[in-house]
From TrEMBL:
Residues 1-23 are annotated as: Disordered. It holds the Pfam family Aldedh. It comes from Agromyces rhizosphaerae. This is Succinic semialdehyde dehydrogenase. It comes from the Bacteria. PANTHER family: SUCCINATE-SEMIALDEHYDE DEHYDROGENASE, MITOCHONDRIAL. The lineage of its organism: Bacteria, Bacillati, Actinomycetota, Actinomycetes, Micrococcales. The gene is gabD.
Length: 531
């Protein structure tokens, strides 16, 4: 494939009417991949199981080439300054909004989500472009700080872009995650080589097109594709900073590599997210919130709840309402359809969900709702499933299922709910449903997760691009979004200069003369609470 070039991209007709993407549009997107070897992989559409396109695959040499070109482009991009980068990213925001129909179509085609759940991603990627465009200067501009010896030394801190970031993303939220990790890197003055998951590469390429058409140099954001074990590893071998999103197992490998090379890595990993339902909820309303939180994107979302702890006072009413809501959910993965939920994304997901369900039921779990594969709807369609009587010997008790299955536990009170919620190796997101936000905030303060959503499943924190997102414990290291998301792409540099007004001591005699005034200065700064 040829090298990425900055071409003006005329939005293709939405593919819904034809049931698949326009082949010419797909071919143009393929041309933007840094891939020269000629190998391809067939990507299947989750809704039908039919081939969607033949994805060109990169070689390790392509990855090296992409980094070399991104390095050159990054030098000019860093020099261009905040105002230029802001203009380009704001234009990218506008193009994402203008091209939302194509993007929604692609999310549906590649992931099997519903239209609404695909729109979540478009909204989030546009919001990431806007936030990072507008926030970067305030967070990263060079500033004066108090020096250790006022009038003798003046100190400034500036932030140097780290170079070219290796961004590695999974298939489940391609636009949101690329938006969060790539736009922050670009706003900070870095270049990006992104390793797209094969199942979601078209989404990323179309998002990149919006940025290129907005004025981003083509070489600055390269997209490579292929196996994690070869192409993913090649990305981590070259990157000046790594932003990885994926499973905890892969995150550990990347952490080891980053440690060997002494490059920083932010790791956004898996979860086994708890939801606590307190006894002061309206059961019907809580059930509707729980259903969206658990089964949107068919539960294939790192921040979806997979464990529900309902307090005894409301357990019967909530469970009845929840089972009713689940039973009423429509499953329809066809692009353009109006189903409540779509489909699992592929065979590997279906196999994992079935394995967890079979293991749980064989060991005594009760299926309260769902529980069936629905090949009549789609090859990977699965009913939203609620289990009770789940015990620690079952895989779905503590392991991330990442799709369709949620376990319900009745607890005596909120203290027991918090203990159970925290008894996990993971610590990504938690949900508290309560009639009192003040009470829910008290509970939230005791939870060991990177985010807590009150009376919302995940969109509250996941959509708050100005706030940090990340996990505790085995759910990750570092934070994306907000100022933290920008700072991970820069190195802080302190530049201290002698003012020349008073010379710092250089001899024993000068030290003797200045010791008392310096002690006085220390005490004065303490009294003035000067940091
Ligand atoms: P995965 O770890 O198998 O793959 C993620 C990406 O890493 C893919 O692009 C893959 O090709 C690549 N990869 C695989 N091995 C690699 C290696 N050795 N070196 C470099 N790259 C490699 O994860 P997955 O199954 O695709 O995604 C689902 C997981 O991602 C779940 O655990 C989910 O919770 C997690 N996730 C986390 C977040 C978050 O923000 N915390 C968001 C979405 C998904």
């Amino acid at each position: 494939m040829s090298a990425p070039v900055a071409v003006s991209h005329a939005p293709a007709a939405p593919p819904r009417s034809t049931g698949g993407p326009d082949p010419q549009w797909v071919a143009e997107l393929h041309d933007d991949i840094t891939a020269t070897g000629g190998d391809t992989r067939t990507v299947l559409a989750p809704a039908t199981g039919e081939p969607l396109h033949e994805l060109p695959l990169s070689t390790p040499g392509d990855v090296a080439d992409a980094f070399a070109r991104a390095r050159l482009a990054q030098v000019a991009w860093a020099r261009a300054g905040f105002a230029h980068r802001r203009r380009v990213l704001l234009r990218a925001h506008d193009l994402i909004v203008a091209r939302r129909e194509q993007l929604i179509d692609l999310v549906q085609l590649e992931t099997g989500k519903t239209r609404g759940q695909a729109f979540e991603e478009v909204y989030q990627s546009a919001a990431s472009a806007r936030y990072n465009a507008l926030a970067a200067r305030g967070v990263l501009r060079s500033r004066r700080v108090h020096s250790g010896a006022p009038t003798v030394i003046e100190a400034r801190v500036r932030h140097r872009p780290r170079g070219v970031a290796g961004v590695i993303t999974p298939w489940n939220f391609p636009l949101s995650l690329a938006g969060m990790d790539v736009f922050s890197a670009l706003a900070a003055g870095c270049g990006v080589v992104q390793k797209a998951d094969e199942q979601a590469a078209l989404n990323i390429l179309e998002l990149r097109r919006a940025a290129i058409d907005a004025g981003l140099p083509g070489d600055l954001w390269a997209v490579v594709t292929g196996d994690g074990a070869t192409i993913g590893e090649a990305v981590t071998d070259h990157a000046d900073v790594i932003a990885f999103t994926g499973s905890t197992a892969t995150g550990r490998r990347i952490a080891r590599k980053a440690a060997e090379r002494l490059v920083p890595a932010s790791l956004e990993l898996g979860g086994k997210n708890p939801m606590i339902v307190l006894d002061d909820v309206d059961p019907g309303k809580a059930a509707r919130q729980a259903a969206y939180a658990c089964y949107a994107s068919m539960g294939q979302l790192c921040v979806s709840p997979e464990r529900i702890y309902v307090t005894r006072g409301v357990a019967d009413a909530f469970t009845r309402a929840f089972v009713r809501v689940i039973g009423s959910m429509t499953i329809d993965p066809a692009p353009g359809s109006a189903g409540d939920v779509g489909t699992l994304t592929g065979q590997a997901q279906l196999d994992r969900v079935r394995a967890h369900l079979d293991d749980a039921t064989a060991k005594g779990a009760t299926v309260l709702a769902g529980g069936a594969h629905r090949p009549d709807i789609g090859p990977y369609a699965f009913e939203p499933t609620l289990l009770a009587d789940v015990s620690p010997d079952m895989h779905c008790f503590a392991e991330e299922t990442f799709g369709a299955i949620v376990s319900l536990y009745v607890v005596d009170d909120e203290e027991e709910a918090v203990l159970a919620a925290n008894a996990s190796d993971y610590g990504l997101n938690a949900v508290v449903l309560s009639g009192s936000v003040a009470r829910a905030r008290r509970v939230a303060a005791a939870l060991e997760t990177g985010s807590v959503n009150i009376n919302e499943g995940y969109r509250g924190s996941f959509g708050s691009i100005a706030a940090p997102m990340g996990g505790s414990k085995q759910s990750g290291l570092g934070r994306r979004n907000g100022p933290d998301g920008l700072k991970r792409y820069v190195e802080s540099v302190t530049v201290a200069s002698a003012t020349g007004l008073i010379q710092a001591p250089t001899s024993a005699r000068e030290w003797r003369m200045l010791e008392q005034p310096m002690l006085l200065l220390l005490r004065a700064q303490r009294v003035l609470r000067r940091r």
